[in-house]
Design a protein that fits this description.
The complex is a heterodimer of chains A (about 450) and B (about 230).
Chain A lengths: L1 H13 L1 H23 L6 E6 L8 E2 L2 E2 L5 H8 L1 E4 L3 H10 L4 E5 L3 H7 L11 E4 L4 H39 L1 E5 L2 E5 L2 H11 L7 H31 L16 H31 L2 H5 L6 H27 L10 H26 L2 H19 L8 H13 L2 H12 L7 H27 L1
Parallel strand pairs in A: 1-4, 1-5
Antiparallel strand pairs in A: 2-3, 5-6, 7-8
Chain B lengths: L1 E9 L2 E10 L5 E5 L6 H9 L6 E4 L6 E4 L11 H11 L5 H12 L14 H13 L5 E5 L7 H16 L3 E6 L2 H7 L2 E6 L2 E6 L1 H11 L8 H11 L3
Parallel strand pairs in B: 3-7, 3-8, 5-6, 6-7
Antiparallel strand pairs in B: 1-2, 1-4, 8-9
Helix pairs in contact in B: 2-3, 3-4, 4-5, 7-8
The chains are: A alpha/beta (about 450), B alpha/beta (about 230).
Chain lengths: ~450, ~230
């Protein structure tokens, strides 16, 4: 078997371009996919026009609030391209230089302030978008909606906070300044205390009864408004999220991305190499000569799987070493890495052998390997809940049949302890090695017959 | 090499119908017949690649060297690497010495470092045969060894094969070229539709053709042979 291994490596060495492509292409694809997963799009470029006069503030009860920093908040989440007028904003959007334009009109704050008057207006901001691409349009819609929701929340919190202060003043009393003049507010608490103190000084009769009713009202109002304070604050954000993990644990996104990249590399290298190498035995007419007493068909399959595992191990380890430059990896877990790579490589190589035995021609095998590996790899990344339950069940079955997903799970578990355990994926891979080995052996009977 | 009553069926079709074959040491036996006669099937059964549905073979498959019709070589390896690989797989104690021996036998010592894909069809066939000889077989089976070769390459190939027979190797080859069979085969086995029609020397076959197809006896041997097959119902 070692001489056949040596022969396959010699053939690989004799075709440097193919060998280079076999390694470089999957690494390139894997790195791209890894980055696509780990990093969301860069901050979108948004043209930003703020026409609101600088000294304009949202006011409550005649008092101006401190600036909510809406502009800063927006520009911290997107790359703001400041424009001087609406025409420039339109130009920027039309040229595609920016994803969208956000315009805060001059009367925005006045409209917000009018909400507390008898003639409330509707505060509006203007968004200019280019709908040339549906994906882009959806992205813009989501981004702008999120930004405005955040801005609304910031303003609502500020108003609620100020409203709460006035409520406290009404209950507990204190100083209140408006238009440069300071007033002392007695407050309901002190009012109730004064009225309670006055009551004994009055003779029994209707006047005293009325005073007692006023005192009771002041006390009740104080107590109820005490409850209203937190309620007003909650109005700004009535619903809070309580997140509880009931199933699964996930490693950091960067680690998952590296696991995806490494598994993709392993999958392409092993499946293509093993399938192609086995098909080559037939194309070179060597299969009958080899299996005529020199090596058994099962031995030949074993040799191909070993070849895939060995080359896959080297390429994947090199890739992980390269990834170390960008994301620190836990090299102390290298034992688990090796286990995951060898088990994943073994199952992927066995699948490659089955493909190679079934397709029998190197070109057909290469095409088939791509047709199978790439879609299954992408299906394996579909999270539950992202598609309908029926479709997801189908996806789960497909991805359980091919070794990519369990190999990814094993790799993720090997790279970081935060993920799920490595035992189940290893068992899954072991079952797939046996299943694909049997399938390949069966396909070889037809392989030999032609 | 002894084979008796070999039968092989593919579904309802009988590819071989009770064929006998006996070959002595150093004998060159040609199996001739039109396409689909059962030549490759017979050789594959003798080589142990196919199993006969009936009949007996008196020689161990391990003592039989087999050279398939299409060169079974790794085209991206050199001549020497191919021979060395198969010598190692055969379990030779000194695979390098065996490789040298075969390079000399095939007359390709000077081209040992060349990639097989760059060699001519004739030279590829010589390596193909040399690999078949690595197991030092008592019997060598060649399936249409001269297909695709030009006349010069054919001549060199048959010179090489004759040399093997001269050293005591029994050589059984198939061909559909009657003249080639007549020229190089010491004995000829004629197959048609899986049936053995004739087993004997070239001169005996001519006699048989003359007696069974006298109207074609004066024409060239190939035409007379075709007439003979037609007379026998094929």
């Amino acid at each position: 078997m070692r001489w056949l291994l040596l022969k396959d490596l010699q053939i690989l060495r004799r075709s440097p371009l193919q060998a280079l492509l076999l390694v470089l292409y999957p690494v390139l694809i894997a790195v791209l996919v890894g980055f696509a997963i780990s990093r969301g799009p860069e901050k979108p470029r948004i043209a930003f026009l703020n026409e609101v006069p600088a000294d304009t503030r949202v006011s409550v009860g005649g008092a101006k609030l401190a600036a909510a920093g809406v502009s800063d908040r927006i520009c911290s989440r997107v790359e703001c391209v400041h424009v001087k007028d609406r025409a420039e904003a339109v130009d920027e959007v039309e040229s595609g230089d920016v994803l969208a334009a956000l315009i805060l009109p001059a009367d925005l704050v006045d409209k917000i302030n009018s909400l507390s008057t008898l003639t409330p207006g509707t505060p509006k901001v203007e968004v200019l978008v280019n709908q040339e691409d549906p994906v882009k349009a959806r992205l813009v819609d989501e981004r702008i909606s999120t930004l405005l929701a955040q801005a609304n929340l910031a303003i609502a919190r500020r108003i609620a906070s100020e409203g709460g202060k006035y409520l406290d003043l009404l209950i507990d009393g204190g100083k209140f300044t408006v238009i440069g003049q300071t007033f002392n507010i007695l407050g309901l608490r002190a009012t109730a205390q004064i009225l309670t103190a006055l009551e004994p000084a009055l003779p029994p009769g209707p006047l005293r009864t009325s005073l007692r009713e006023v005192t009771r009202f002041a006390t009740q109002a104080r107590d109820n408004l005490d409850v209203a304070g937190p309620l007003i604050e909650r109005l700004a954000q009535p619903i809070e999220v309580k997140k509880e993990v009931v199933n699964g644990s996930s490693p950091p996104l960067e680690i998952f991305a590296i696991a995806v990249a490494a598994t993709l590399t392993l999958a392409f290298v092993t499946v293509l190499l093993v399938a192609g190498s086995l098909a080559l035995e037939r194309e070179e007419n060597a299969f009958p000569r080899l299996t005529r007493g020199l090596i058994s068909p099962l031995g030949l399959l074993g040799e191909k799987v070993l070849l895939g595992m060995a080359v896959g191990l080297i390429v994947t380890l090199l890739m992980l070493a390269g990834m170390q430059l960008f994301v620190p990896l836990q090299w102390s877990r290298i034992g688990l890495w090796l286990l995951a790579i060898l088990a994943g490589g073994g199952a992927l190589a066995a699948a490659g052998a089955a493909l190679g035995a079934a397709a029998r021609e190197v070109r057909a095998v290469s095409l088939l390997a791509f047709m199978v590996t790439l879609p299954v790899a992408f299906l394996s990344l579909v999270p539950s809940g992202a598609v309908g339950s029926g479709v997801f069940d189908l996806v789960r079955i497909v991805t359980a049949i091919f070794p990519f997903k369990p190999a990814l799970q094993a790799m993720t578990a090997a790279l970081d302890s935060a993920g799920n355990g490595i035992g189940v994926p290893l068992l899954h891979l072991a079952i797939l090695i046996v299943a694909y080995g049997l399938l390949a052996r069966f396909a070889l009977r037809r392989f030999a017959a032609v | 090499m002894q084979a008796r009553g070999l039968v092989k069926r593919y579904g309802d079709r009988e590819a071989l119908r009770g064929v006998d074959l006996i070959a002595e040491p150093g004998e060159l036996v040609a199996i001739i017949g039109p396409n689909g006669a059962g030549k490759t099937t017979l050789l594959s059964i003798l080589a142990g690649i196919l199993k006969a549905d009936a009949g007996e073979i008196g020689t161990d498959a391990g003592a039989v060297g087999w050279v398939p019709q299409q060169a079974a070589l790794y085209r991206r390896l050199t001549v020497e690497e191919n021979l060395l690989l198969f010598a190692r797989l055969e379990g030779h104690e000194d695979p390098r010495a065996s490789t040298e021996e075969m390079l000399e036998l095939a007359g390709l010592g000077e081209r040992r470092a060349e990639i097989v894909a760059r060699l001519s069809g004739g030279n590829q066939q010589r390596i193909n045969i040399a690999i078949g000889l690595l197991s030092r077989p008592a019997v060598l089976l060649l399936d249409e060894p001269s297909v695709g070769l030009d006349p010069r390459q054919r001549a060199r190939l048959w010179e090489f094969v004759a040399g093997l027979a001269g050293r005591g190797t029994t050589v059984i080859f198939s061909t559909h070229d009657i003249q080639e069979a007549e020229r190089y085969g010491r004995r000829l086995l004629v197959l048609a539709d899986g049936e053995s029609l004739f087993d004997g020397g070239a001169e005996e076959l001519r006699e048989a053709v003359r007696s069974e197809a006298p109207e074609a006896a004066d024409r060239n041997f190939e035409t007379a042979f075709v007439a003979y097959l037609q007379h026998r119902g094929h």
